[in-house]
Amino acid sequence: MHYSLYIVLKNVAPLNYFLLLPLQHRKEIKTTNMDLMLFLLYSCLPLLPLLYVIFTILDRRRHHNCYILAYECYKPTDDRKLSTKFSGEVIRRNKHLGLHEYKFLLKAIVSSGIGEETYGPKMIFDGREASPTLADGLVEMDEFFVDSIDKLFAKTGISPSEIDILVVNISMLASAPSLSSRIINLYKMRDDVKVYNLTGMGCSASLVSINIVQSVFKVHRNKQALVVTSESLSLGWYTGNDRSMILANCLFRSGGCAMILTNKPSLKDKAMFKLKCLVRTHHGAKEESYTCCAQKEDEKGHVGFHLGKNLPKAATRAFIDNLKVMAPKILPMRELLRFSALLLTRKLRQRWSKGAAARPVINFKTGVDHFCLHTGGKAVIDAIAQNLNLSEHDVEPARMTLHRFGNTSASSLWYVLAYMEAKRRLKKGDRVFMISFGAGFKCNSCLWEVVRDLDGKNVWQEFIHNYPTKNLKNPFLEKFGWLQDEDPDTFFVPDDYEIPE
């Protein structure tokens, strides 16, 4: 039987015809197959190191992903709400204020965008804002820890002993032992948990914490991290009359958020969000930026948080520099080419005609579905909306969060995100752009991808049907507008004066 005939027979019924072949022909065929196998082995051998490197890189990248499994925003009890009447009582208790300060506060509160249902720390309701103690700050944090972290563990089914990394950022309260140690003690976490305790990072601290977790995930596989972000108002409440420091009392409110992140590939289908990229910009080297918002003492020794007039300028510079790095990471090439062409055209027109030409605007909506903005105040939201050419629908989550919860510092982003979720805006595959600002001066931003459709069960669920509210008018002007007509030389508040309901 010829070998060519064997090939034909092999294609028809390999096993049957192979068994019918004479023994000698079988040996020849086996030898030929063995030679072929050796040839392939020796040919592929040099490629094995390359294949190993490719496999290692792909496997490593699979473990580098950073997912949010769940997050829990803190809602204090209703007896901590700062109504218009109670806010007036707090202001009146400050004996360092006069008519000029009252008028300034009235203007600031009316234009702040904050409503009547925001929350304050317990010591204010006890009437001790002028003499807070360390215990006040710790109680404020414990209330948040116990409420939000307990709910988070219950929601995820994860126990404290399964946490590998703990990151805590509370800017205005530094205790010994640290607040991170307080959480470890409270939940009896493992003795090998990796701990990071951040202070003084301001309103942008949340994304700094996320960045720390992201970096740890790149070198450690199959880990779970607990991030706790909040702000302590108890020891930072200002009782003087410096206008640049009174403003902080009008904007900042109690709040916080706890979240669990992981890089476990096995949990990616249970995750809510996947981190795509994160950019941090720090202008601390610029003196004007460094001093525009800072904790300090006034001339009389009262400690508070100073918000300078140059803050908007510092924020704009940091924002622009941050976007220069972030835009190429999140926008499609066609939008970058379109913007570059318009920018070049503008420069050529200016050179030829020597006239002013409209500045081109980059369209971030080509790469972003939702904008999660820091609720630093109405002016902050308006400025970002103008610079990014956003619609009222885009900034609605930030405006409603500011109205309902105020500026909760580093945790404010997560209340905005929760609003989007509660409104069922977030669908699988959507991309969420987070932007935050903080003392230093810093602008941090990141992009999240929604991993699955979300159910909207969060801090907003009980009253989300009331939003968006059409009337954001602040009742302060209606109740205290009479101050605008008072004469500084004759003004006084009678001791028996009662603030109207």
Structure characterization notes:
This protein is 45% helix and 15% strand. With 501 residues, the chain is an alpha/beta fold. The chain has a nine-stranded mixed sheet with strand order 3-2-4-5-1-6-11-10-9, with helices on both faces. The longest helix is centred in the first third of the chain and has 23 residues, at 134-156. The radius of gyration is 30 Å and the shape is globular. The model is unreliable at 1-21 (pLDDT under 50).
Keywords:
501 residues, alpha/beta, nine-stranded mixed sheet, two-stranded antiparallel sheet, disordered N terminus
Write the layout of secondary structure elements.
Blueprint: H1 3-12, H2 14-20, H3 23-44, H4 48-64, E1 67-73, H5 84-93, H6 99-110, H7 122-125, H8 134-156, E2 165-170, H9 179-187, E3 194-198, H10 205-217, E4 224-230, H11 243-251, E5 256-262, E6 273-282, H12 287-291, E7 293-297, E8 303-307, H13 311-330, H14 333-353, E9 370-373, H15 378-388, H16 392-405, H17 412-422, E10 431-438, E11 442-450, H18 476-480
Parallel strand pairs: 2-3, 2-4, 9-10
Antiparallel strand pairs: 1-5, 1-6, 4-5, 6-11, 7-8, 10-11
Helix pairs in contact: 1-2, 6-11, 16-17
Mean pLDDT: 86
The number of helical segments is 18
SSE-based structural type = alpha/beta
Provide the gyration radius in Å.
30 Å
User: What is the total tally of β strands?
Assistant: 11
- The helical percent reads 40-55%
N/C terminus separation: 109 Å
Low-confidence stretches: 1-21
Strand order of the largest sheet: 3-2-4-5-1-6-11-10-9
Instruction: Report the sheet-strand fraction.
Output: 5-15%
Reading the helices and strands in chain order gives: HHHHEHHHHEHEHEHEEHEEHHEHHHEEH
Outline: globular
Largest sheet: 9 strands, mixed
